[in-house]
Amino acid sequence: QFHGDELIIRRGQTFQIEIELNRPFSAETDKMHLELKTGLLPKVSKGTHVIIPLVEHLEDERWEAKITEQNGTKIKLS
Length: 78
Hints:
Layout: E1 17-20, E2 33-37, E3 49-53, E4 67-71, E5 74-77
Antiparallel strand pairs: 1-5, 2-3, 4-5
């Protein structure tokens, strides 16, 4: 478990994050993705800005997130 302002994530390393929203998340009506950025001018083309979609099933070798737990306004992503 890690608490702090900076998070270090390595490509291919699984991690979990818990997010608290202002209302319950509904996969049928809500859209969500994560964005990871590093450096002063992050760019998708340079791999310094990564957009992570929510998916139903995780695949190897891809940046993806899946809801593994949901309790009211809190969701846990892996």
